[in-house]
Amino acid sequence: MLLTNATLLSLANSTVQRADLRIEKGVVTAKASKLKAVAGERTLDFSGRFLMPGMVCGHTHLYSALARGMPMPKKVPRNFYEILKYVWWTLDRALDDEADYYSTLVGVLDAARCGTTALIDHHASPNFIRGSLGVMGEAIEKIGLRGVLCYEVTDRNGLRGAKLGLEENETWVGKNRGPMFGGLVGAHASFTLSDESLGACADLAEGLGSGVHIHVAEDPCDQADCTAKYGEKLIDRLADAGVLGPKTILGHCTHLDSASLDLARDAGCWFAHNTRSNMNNAVGYAPVHLMGRQVALGTDGIGADMFEEVKFAWFKARDGRNGLGIGDVAGFLTGAQNLASMLLNTRLGMLEPGCAADLVVLDYPTPTAVTPQNLLGHLIFGMSSQFVTDVMVNGKWVLKNREVVGVDEERIRAEAQRVAKKVWRRFQQLPARG
Ligand SMILES: [Zn+2]
Fold first, then answer.
1. Whole-Å CA distances, 93 to 32, 82, 303
2. Parallel, antiparallel, or unpaired: how do β-strands 43-45 and 50-53 relate?
3. Distance between Cα 32 and ligand 1 center (Å)
4. CA 62 to ligand 1 center in whole angstroms
5. Side-chain half-sphere CA neighbours of 269 within 13 A
6. List of E strands, 218-322
7. Which end of the chain is more exposed for a tag (fewer CB within 10 A), N or C?
């Protein structure tokens, strides 16, 4: 397939370039100012359109997709711990296989419409653990996106829950080594994991040649718990357990000090920054300016619109006066692409020969020229997911002329509403559990 006459945008190296692309077997095989179609090759003309690499969400929870508009819990949460207790730890217990499937499906539909082509997810459904990642994989595959999945190991659901969680990670990671699906060992957070469970997560990840995906100091309660129970710094507990390493993702790190961040960075860890979620949970602004280059932007379950998320990341950086430049913040988007590339054994985030054919077409009616110098200004102040018309993943169109390819989207959304009603009913009936 030949894609011609588009303007290619690259955030990774800040270029704006008129060029044609040849796509074969899911990979970009040629890029030049003018490519001639060979016999039998289909040519698609994208004159006046912009093409950019697919976006990646570096940390999300697809299981929260059916929580949109959900009735508030009977008790109004007053802090982060209560938000978990009354909302998310009740919602996750209300999920069954059907709910996992539809919440993933609608979450992925939304992602595709926003030009997000890969998702790094952290999943929990304590009453449906075994097989849950497989069900999510089916839903992601139906739409055609890429996914790095993990199951959240925690002691909240007893020994059996923790054991089933470990097994689910082992099964999934063992079978999925890229390029469409990958896996990590999911761990909830230090404050819900005993030494045994945390160590088991690290050991499993090591045995599988994988990493751990864990929430870290999202709120001060995580460190406070660690100090009270173990008398040590949270990052030292994670280091001692063997959690830190180059495939490990530390979510949030809102309340880690600079020495802790240095330790994690030196171990090669990745940081997932979720600006909107942190604002929504009022947990504070993460010291993202101290995290180095391995920062991946995530949504933490607030959809998968990375155009939207990066705007907030930028405005929060401005508001927080942390000295980050617009290039640093845009780097969180390319960070997520680099992270997913490593975890999926492929090359995302660039439209160069040899890279994966994951791309987004924008019909962006700009009133001013787009240049390498002002590309990031357009990203923050002009572009948005409303201009996404087409999306390709692995050389296949998943969105064509604003229509999701190969699925009956209306029917899926109607089914999701039916399933959501059941989830909400169970949510309202379940007693809160800390
Ligand atoms: Zn999260």
1. 52, 16, 21
2. unpaired
3. 41
4. 10
5. 29
6. 249-252, 270-273, 295-297
7. C
